[in-house]
């Protein structure tokens, strides 16, 4: 099986590195291209057996399975221009949420799916969100799920929860990185601990927390109960969090969904034209 990657920005590159590092595929199976071709060639320097294609059309013709890793507004022009190259034995996979699988199927005749990755997939962890088109063959469903399983936990989702699931899986690492950085900054500003020490301690705390959850030692609620001794220091901290956080996360999801609706409206104009 030959795999094409159209778009080698942040997520495209992460997918390439994860698939190769996990040995899910051989580098010689990969055919990649990018609008700025030097980005694709930089990846080839690190993974020499990858083939860099000069154009999108070359990539489509060479590959059986194609990942479209471009901005939502760039998808329709690419698909419309090259729709005749997507023969029905191929599979097209989008990694972005505003364009539905149904919209992909409205342009091309091949099997279509969506696979929303996470930066955590780079270390072969986290979740990949999968959605399949009505005409996606059983063989391609199994193939894509198997690939995702090598770099993540594959989870099939319904269209109506695509945005919130992506917020948690794909945006979540950025959100909690920001919160952790503010946690560190607060410690440095209020005490004599150094930025370096606080960063080390907080980072390792998160790694340990992840291991506890991964090994099912505790659930999130039970972990809080174990650490939060009644009348203790942790309880005082939790009281502050309860008071200050309020509806912050409600507002966060409201904001991401508002932007999502704007993106969907923009792409709908293209696909419904």
From TrEMBL:
It holds the Pfam family P5CR_dimer. Residues 2-97 form the Pyrroline-5-carboxylate reductase catalytic N-terminal domain. It comes from the Bacteria. Residues 159-262 form the Pyrroline-5-carboxylate reductase dimerisation domain. Belongs to the pyrroline-5-carboxylate reductase family. This is Late competence protein ComER. It comes from Bacillus spongiae. The lineage of its organism: Bacteria, Bacillati, Bacillota, Bacilli, Bacillales.
């Amino acid at each position: 099986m030959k795999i094409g990657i159209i778009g080698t920005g942040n997520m495209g590159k992460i997918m390439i590195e994860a698939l190769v590092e996990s040995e899910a595929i051989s580098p010689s199976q990969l055919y990649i291209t990018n609008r700025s071709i030097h980005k694709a060639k930089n990846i080839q320097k690190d993974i020499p057996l990858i083939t860099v294609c000069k154009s999108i059309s070359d990539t489509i013709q060479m590959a059986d399975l194609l990942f479209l890793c471009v901005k939502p507004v760039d998808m329709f022009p690419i698909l419309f221009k090259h729709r005749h190259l997507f023969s029905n034995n191929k599979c097209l996979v989008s990694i972005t949420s505003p364009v539905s699988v149904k919209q992909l199927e409205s342009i091309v005749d091949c099997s279509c799916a969506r696979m929303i990755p996470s930066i955590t997939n780079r270390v072969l962890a986290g979740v990949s969100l999968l959605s399949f088109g009505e005409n996606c063959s059983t063989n391609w469903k199994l193939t894509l799920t198997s690939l995702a399983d090598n770099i993540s936990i594959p989870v099939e989702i319904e269209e109506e929860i695509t945005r919130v699931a992506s917020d948690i899986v794909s945006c979540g690492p950025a959100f909690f990185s920001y919160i952790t950085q503010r946690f560190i900054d607060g410690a440095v500003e209020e005490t004599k601990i150094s930025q370096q020490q606080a960063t080390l301690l907080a980072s390792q705390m998160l790694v340990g927390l992840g291991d506890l959850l991964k090994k099912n030692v505790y659930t999130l609620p039970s972990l809080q109960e174990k650490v939060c001794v009644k009348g203790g220091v942790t309880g005082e901290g939790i009281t502050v969090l309860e008071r200050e956080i309020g509806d912050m996360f409600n507002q966060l999801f409201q904001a991401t969904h508002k932007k999502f609706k704007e993106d969907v409206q923009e792409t709908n104009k293209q696909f419904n034209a």
